[in-house]
Write a structure and sequence with these properties.
Layout (H helix, E strand, L loop, with lengths): L3 E5 L3 H10 L4 E6 L7 E4 L5 E4 L3 E3 H7 L6 E4 L6 H8 L9 E3 L6 H8 L4 E6 L2 E4 L4 E6 L2 E5 L6 H13 L3 E4 L3 H22 L9 H20 L10 H15 L6 H7 L6 H4 L1 H10 L4 H18 L3
Parallel strand pairs: 1-2, 1-6, 2-5, 3-10, 6-7, 7-8, 11-12
Antiparallel strand pairs: 3-4, 8-11, 9-10
Helix pairs in contact: 6-7, 6-8, 6-9, 6-12, 7-8, 7-11
């Protein structure tokens, strides 16, 4: 019998997961509103595939009588993850394993502490974006790491990795997911806010207009992560290792439009609270300077207010 997977949040990663898992499993994509049918997937090679996804609204779950899910994947934005889980908590056993696919380090510790069952965390470099309401574009293949914050569920992580591998995801179960989440957070903090504020692609951060500010972010972040006990990437040392990682990602994703910039262009709330918030909070706890990060957060807050505040 196939393990049922519920995917909560029909954004880009949610739909990519649904398209990938549906041919091999029992998959239900859950959102606040009905999805257009059918749904298209464009592969990194440019092939378009048509697939009818089993998509339900949260309101429809009560009347569908679905079997209990083996995994619930929460693929919403970080600031919506807890509310999304609450919206379906009456329909799933409290022992159901959750898989969190959020950026930053906001939802992961909160849900891990609050949920009685296992909570796995995923960090991925899979690239995907929505093209209209009926298509997801798989922009680039990446790698996905799966683990839990306290390394209590290694067998469950390996089981999920095997399923993801069958679905075409290059994935690895790890015992250091907290380190990896903080490392990705560091990169996101150095790239996403600046490209969102200035409306540029990642590679443009190399220019003289922005590179100095990137360096200032890295300096603050490196001190914060050292205080958090997060090892520098690639067996490197201190700020130099973080600087090398950030610029490597900038170069590797030079033509990309970061998710935070996509949010600004779509006039949506950004994930500044999940990306900058944990770093600022940690800096304050450790008595470290974070003026650069606080300035970025304030600028993003003002930008959001310019299009989210009622006229």
């Amino acid at each position: 019998m196939m393990t049922p997977h519920w995917i909560l949040g029909p954004g880009a990663i949610g739909r990519l997961l649904a398209h990938s898992l549906s041919p091999i499993g029992d998959v239900t994509l859950v959102g606040r509103r009905a999805l257009a049918e059918p749904q298209w997937l464009t592969t990194p090679e440019g092939e378009r595939r048509l697939q009818r996804l089993n998509a339900l609204t949260v309101d429809q779950l009560a009347s569908e009588g679905l079997p209990a899910p083996g995994f619930v994947h929460i693929t919403t934005k970080a600031m919506a993850a807890e509310a999304a889980l609450e919206s379906i908590s009456n329909f799933i056993p409290s022992t159901t394993p959750l898989v969190l696919w959020q950026n930053g380090f906001l939802a992961q510790p909160r849900i891990t502490q609050a949920w009685p069952g296992p909570v796995l965390n995923a960090t991925t470099t899979q690239g995907a974006y929505l093209s209209g309401d009926a298509e997801v574009v798989h922009a680039g293949r990446g790698h996905t790491f799966i683990g839990d914050l306290h390394n209590r569920h290694p067998a469950l992580a390996k089981t999920l990795v095997q399923t993801l591998a069958q679905a075409g995801f290059d994935a690895t179960a790890v015992d250091d997911i907290r380190q990896r989440l903080w490392q990705k957070l560091a990169v996101n903090a150095a790239i996403n806010p600046l490209v969102a504020l200035h409306g540029v692609h990642n590679g443009e951060l190399r220019g003289a207009e922005y590179s100095g500010r990137v360096a200032s972010v890295i300096t603050e972040v490196a001190m914060i992560l050292q205080a958090e006990g997060i090892q520098p990437p690639n067996a490197g040392h201190g700020e130099d290792a973080w600087r090398a990682l950030v610029w490597q990602v900038v170069d590797n994703t030079a033509g990309n439009k970061a998710s935070m910039l996509q949010d600004v262009e779509a006039r949506r709330p950004t994930e500044r609270g999940a990306i900058l918030g944990p770093l600022i909070e940690s800096a304050q706890q450790h008595g470290l300077p974070c003026e650069v990060l606080q300035a970025l957060d304030a600028e993003l807050a003002a930008l959001e207010a310019s299009y989210l505040s009622p006229r």
